Amino acid sequence: MFGRRGLDVKTPDQIRKMRVAGLVVGETLELIRGQVGDGMSTRDLDASAEEYIRGRGATPSFLGYHGFTGSLCISVNEEVVHGIPGPRTVRDGDLVSIDCGAIVDGWHGDAAISLIVGGRLAASARDLALIDATEASMWAGIAALAVGSALYDVGAAVEDCITEAARADGATYGIVEDYVGHGIGTEMHQDPQVPNYRVRDRGPIVRSGVTVAIEPMITLGSAETDVLDDEWTVVTQDGSRAAHWEHSVAVTDAGIWVLTALDGGQKCLGALGAPYAPLA
Ligand code: MG
Ligand code: MG
User: Fold this and answer.
1) 141 CA from centroid of ligand 2 (Å)
2) CA distance 256 to 81
């Protein structure tokens, strides 16, 4: 069912099905977060994710998507998104972004995290600040979602959060504009696109049952990107490191349900004073 300007609206039952897929994605990312370590290959991490996804009765949505060969996208350091799992090993101090998608009963979940291999002790302060700022901007964008509000207010909230974080951190942060958030449901990518920056148009009005993936990508320098010769891996033009966070989110009259967060978003939405509204 499509509303005006292409905003696809899901029924409560459909949103519950998306929650099942979202939990598989969230669980897979937590599994990989716990496994990633110095000397591990991105191929091994990918194999572990695929095994977990299939073990939960789900299908990895990235695998075979336009010919993609992984179940995860694993993007290291200056790679922003769409890194292909392979023989490369990650090392302590690497900034790794892990993006995961899964399908259950035809319904999709899509989420991403960024982390430092070896944890905080192996991390530089500026990488940690970048990761934290990117995650905070995602939550600010999610918290801007409400029935009756304009969809592109998400991007304004992300941008304002990053501007403030750059000031507080004494950093230069670039907001990638070449890749944006999106509707999600029976396809991983549905209309509309959701920019991570302020645009002139405020976009369609959010209605109850809208489901979108919010996914800011922030760099430690320029926001300009290139695609490598493998035709997938997106890198920053200036070689600066990048972070990427993503959640799939449902908006209803009661508030927000973060479908790919294990706690449904309760903790982070609560911290922002945004209404946490799981469906029973
Ligand atoms: Mg994703
Ligand atoms: Mg996505």
Assistant:
1) 14
2) 26
Domains of the chain: 12-272 (3.90.230.10)
- Residue 62: nearest ligand to its CA? 1
| 8 Å CB contact between 194 and 187 | no
Q: Which ligand is nearest to the CA of 244?
A: 1
- Among residues 235, 191, 236, the alpha carbon closest in space to that of 212 is found at 191
CA atoms within 13 A on the CB side of 216: 30
Please give the distance, rounded to the nearest whole angstrom, from the Cα atom of residue 125 to the centre of ligand 2: 27
- pLDDT tens for each residue of 40-79: 999 999 999 999 999 999 999 999 999 999 999 999 999 9
- Structure tokens that stand for 230 in this block: 């493998």
pLDDT above 60 for 190: yes
User: Rounded to the nearest whole angstrom, what is the distance from the C-alpha of residue 31 to the centroid of ligand 1?
Assistant: 17
Distance CA 71, CA 74 (A): 10
User: Residue 73: beta bridge partners?
Assistant: 99
Cβ partners under 8 Å of residue 31, min gap 6: 48, 49, 52
Question: How far away, in angstroms, is 181 Cα from ligand 2 center?
Answer: 6
How far is the centre of ligand 1, averaged over its atoms, from the C-alpha of 248 (Å)?
A: 9
pLDDT in tens, 9-39: 999 999 999 999 999 999 999 999 999 999 9
Distance 29 CA to ligand 1 centre (A): 11
CA of 274 to the centre of ligand 2 (A): 22
Residue 208 has a CB neighbour count (10 Å cut-off) of 15
